[in-house]
Design brief:
The relative contact order is 0.06. Helix 2 links the parallel strand 3 and strand 4. The chain has an eleven-stranded parallel beta sheet with strand order 6-9-12-15-18-23-26-29-32-35-37, with no helix packed on it. It folds into three domains: about 90 residues, 3-Layer(aba) Sandwich (Udp-n-acetylmuramoylalanyl-d-glutamate--2,6- Diaminopimelate Ligase, Chain: A, domain 1), CATH 3.40.1390; about 200 residues, 3 Solenoid (UDP N-Acetylglucosamine Acyltransferase, domain 1), CATH 2.160.10; about 30 residues, no CATH class. It starts with a helix and ends with a helix. It is of the alpha/beta class and about 350 residues long.
């Protein structure tokens, strides 16, 4: 498409004399050629912007003076990048409907004629699959699972009994939805498994990353509300509830029965204990450990930043002395007050 056509599609204002230049793709500032666009959101890349050969660069109006090539002005240039990338995403082209000859589909499953089922997929009796669903190779859809329209399962996704997916859900390879929660009772030192009788409800337009696991509820359902975005290798325990449009980065662990609000952002490697509540619009920075409920919106952090090991060892040794030091300071304060 031409630059002017692209500007219209992403909602940008084109500045420059290259409106009829044909654009064939999008690339980084350093790699973009004269028929590709790029984007600029971080001032650390000023030097790359100054020397780019891109046909045009998506950037904010305040940075327009930094570019020697035509610009596509947007208040949120990263959003412009997302929209432009979608225009050149070849993987977004759906395969034609049909069932691969190596797939096994129960005659008692209900599948719309517009569904695509990939090689070696298994669909059990009672599954209900809506229009224009794409089921990648090696997926397993257990009995009674419901999948909404235009949902896309990439390779080797497993949907266990009791799972329901909304419309336009995207699940990446290796994800497991509806596996048993970690429910055990102790009988004189031996563990007795508690059957997990609930399911998982996933709302419309949710994205679930590769190898992420969402456990079914023990009683009732684990609930992932509309628009939630989950990165790779996240563990979500049984009966967790995640509010609309919350985004969670990779390697987060959420213990059972925790409720997370809407529009939250949780950084990578965060650990969240069970049976707590996190308010709407909370941000938790990467590597934090959440041990109690968060009742108010805001940005929260925990953990010790990286430092040289000898210094960390000294600080850790002093950390262990904090309680004793506090008591000594309190005692000295009391003594000083008594002498005044």
């Amino acid at each position: 498409m031409t630059l002017s056509e692209l500007a219209t599609q992403i909602g940008a204002q084109l500045q420059g004399t290259a409106s009829n230049v044909m654009v064939t793709g999008i690339a980084t500032l350093t790699r973009a050629g004269p028929q590709e666009i790029s984007f600029f959101t971080n001032t650390l890349y000023r030097e790359e912007l100054a020397h780019t050969d891109a046909a045009a660069v998506i950037l904010a109006p305040k940075d327009q003076h930094l570019s020697k090539v035509p610009v596509l002005l947007m208040e949120n240039p990263y959003l412009g990048y997302a929209r432009a990338a979608a225009l050149f995403d070849n993987s977004a082209v759906p395969p034609p409907p049909g069932i691969h000859p190596t797939a096994w589909v129960s005659p008692h499953a209900m599948i719309e004629a517009t569904v695509f089922v990939g090689a070696q997929a298994v669909i059990e009796a009672g599954a209900i699959i809506g229009r224009h669903v794409i089921i990648g190779p090696g997926c397993v859809i257990e009995s009674g699972v419901r999948i909404g329209e235009e949902t896309h399962l990439r390779a080797n996704v497993t949907l266990c009994k009791g799972t329901q997916l909304g419309m336009r859900v995207l699940i990446h390879p290796g994800a497991v939805i509806g596996s048993d929660g970690f429910g055990l009772a102790n009988d004189k030192g031996q563990w007795v498994k508690i059957p997990q009788l609930g399911g998982v409800d996933v709302g419309d337009e949710v994205e679930i990353g590769a190898n992420t696991t969402i456990d079914k509820g023990s009683l009732g359902n684990t609930i992932i509300h509309r628009g939630v975005k989950l990165d790779n290798q996240i563990q979500i325990g049984h009966n967790v509830e995640i509010g609309e449009h919350t985004a969670i980065a990779g390697c987060v662990g959420i213990a059972g029965s925790t409720r997370i609000g809407r529009y939250c952002m949780i950084g990578g490697g965060v650990g969240i204990v069970g049976h707590i509540e996190i308010a709407d619009r909370v941000q938790i920075t990467g590597g934090s450990i959440v041990l109690q409920s968060i009742p108010e919106p805001g940005v929260y952090s925990s953990g010790t930043p990286l430092q040289l090991t000898p210094r960390w060892q000294r600080n850790y040794h002093r950390f262990k002395q904090l309680d004793e030091l506090t008591r000594r300071v309190y005692t000295l304060e009391q003594l000083l007050e008594s002498k005044q």
